[in-house]
Write a structure and sequence with these properties.
Strand content: 15-25%
Radius of gyration: 25 Å
Largest sheet: 7 strands, mixed
Mean pLDDT: 90
Length: 506
């Protein structure tokens, strides 16, 4: 320990110290605060038969057992011990000896030895070893990067109706920058769309569902969140071979237009109900999209499969809003985000953005209130999503949305130099308008969360915020910072290539 840099961290009700380069990211306090609230609501729902009024910081034999598989400093586990009501046991695991030493010291310093046990093991192997005799009520996976390698063991080790709390920070992969890598990690093709953050959530959910289905299990999402540089999902896991048959109808292929950005979802399966014999029949869809985009005549990119079922449980979100403690450091942000999530349309996957629609047509951007009013006046539903402050989530068909923009353009004509043949703009504007459109103000266009002045779309939490640098506790502190090692790497690679070419010529 001598010579190691000591950092003292206070968060929630926990006070910890770290020695050397053990991973801690202050930006993720929002993640941890929200997880505390979710676990409190889950414990109450999961163990309704308990007759004891639970308090945080006390051990209960009829309480929940939590595994934090990738604990690092132990901060999260210690916070759960001191802030979650109705806990029986928490296992704080890490593969790093140095991290586990930190965890043990922090457990002792916070006087939670009766609730938290330190574990030194490979997370995947620990879960595999526990999947038969010692399963957990809740498993928290918060890795650096992708959680995909932990999912197979996690879906087997969580108890019936138990909770998985899963984070993914490899947003570049999930948001369409590397679709081939996304397919190898998550079993789905990501696309670069304006709705990439929601698509990332839906890819992660289908990946968890896929792992669960292999063991006759399925997931029920309680809350799915995109925040800062990561996504986080909270799902319950149940067992039923019969319900697993419904999975095909919960997954869709995404057709994304390369010209105007319109999207179409095609489910992988359909469910039909026979009125005569009162039986459910599972089948495959017969409709095929085919051809080019019907709006701008450009080709499609094909992505997915993605989860097309609801991202959240409205009832659970209501419970969370009723339980948000005001002392939490990110209380205002949690309150705002949860209220926007409560307003989100549950059955309209993906979304448009205001700048996408106006930018495609090179037209003056209308106000959000006007667009939302036009959609509502057309008899359709519309909402924001917590993932984008200019989002337009709606059950209106794309044809109606483009009709809205065509009418808007007729009132605010584009300049002639913008009118170039065969572009998405000229093709869309050249098509006829089929719907009546009214921009008259609709009172419902202004959501309640905005009227209340809640913190709905917070700014970046810190300068240079992000997932941080991977901890070097396991591999040794003398490895140096990755960014420093990579300085001038491209120039060095180019120089080496030149030397190789010169040698070949000789």
């Amino acid at each position: 320990m001598e010579g190691s840099e000591v950092k003292e961290i206070s968060e929630g009700m926990a006070r910890i110290k770290t020695y050397g380069n053990v991973f801690y990211n202050p930006v993720q306090q929002f993640n941890r605060d929200l997880s505390v609230i979710v676990l409190n609501a889950f414990a109450k729902e999961y163990k309704p038969e308990s007759q004891t009024p639970w308090e945080a910081g006390t051990k209960y034999d009829d309480g929940i057992i939590i595994l934090e598989a990738l604990s690092a400093t132990g901060l999260r586990s210690i916070r759960y011990a001191k802030e979650v009501k109705g806990v029986k046991e928490i296992v704080a695991n890490d593969i790093s000896v140095k991290a586990v030493d930190d965890i043990k010291r922090n457990i002792s310093a916070n006087a939670v030895e009766d609730l938290v046990t330190a574990s030194h093991d490979d997370a995947t192997m620990l879960m595999y070893m526990c999947r038969k005799e010692r399963r957990f009520d809740a498993i928290d996976l918060d890795p650096y990067g992708s959680p995909s390698i932990f999912l197979d063991s996690a879906v087997q080790t969580v108890k019936e109706g138990g909770l998985l709390l899963v984070t993914s920070t490899d947003m570049a992969v999930l948001a369409g920058n590397s679709p081939e890598t996304c397919h190898s990690k998550y079993g789905a093709i990501s696309l670069r769309t304006k709705a990439c953050h929601e698509m990332a959530l839906r890819i992660l959910l289908q990946c968890i569902e896929s792992h669960a289905n292999r063991y006759g299990r399925y997931i029920v999402p309680l809350l799915s969140l995109s925040a800062d540089f990561y996504i986080r999902v909270f799902v319950r896991v149940f067992t039923s071979a019969k319900i697993c048959k419904q999975t095909l109808s919960k997954l869709s292929t995404v057709y994304h237009c390369t010209g105007c950005g319109s999207f179409v979802l095609e489910p992988l399966g359909v469910i039909k109900f026979n009125e005569k014999n009162q039986q459910i029949k599972y089948g495959l869809p017969t409709r095929s999209l085919g051809g080019s985009c019907q709006h701008c005549d450009h080709p499609h990119h094909v992505g997915g499969p993605i989860w097309n079922a609801p991202l959240h449980s409205p009832q659970f979100v209501e419970k969370l809003l009723a339980e948000v403690p005001q002392h939490l450091g990110t209380f205002k942000r949690i309150e705002g985000v949860l209220n926007v999530i409560k307003e989100e349309l549950p059955d309209s996957p993906l979304y448009y953005t205001l700048e996408q629609l106006s930018g495609t047509l090179h037209v003056e951007t209308p106000s959000m209130i006007m667009i939302r009013s036009a959609i509502l006046n057309g008899g359709y539903k519309v909402s924001y999503t917590h993932m984008n402050k200019t989002s337009i989530k709606t059950n209106a068909p794309a044809k109606f949305i483009w009709d809205v923009m065509r009418i808007w353009q007729s009132k605010h004509p584009i300049s002639k130099k913008r009118s170039v043949k065969s572009t998405p703009a000229t093709t869309i504007l050249g098509k006829s308008t089929d719907f009546e459109v009214s921009f008259e103000y609709n009172a419902e266009a202004n959501p309640e969360s905005k009227k209340l002045g809640l913190l709905r779309f917070p700014q970046n939490p810190l300068p240079n915020w992000g997932p941080g640098t991977r901890a070097t506790a396991m591999i040794g502190d003398n490895q140096g910072d990755k960014r420093e090692r990579n300085q001038g790497k491209r120039k060095r690679d180019t120089s080496n290539d030149s030397e190789v070419n010169q040698n070949k010529q000789h």
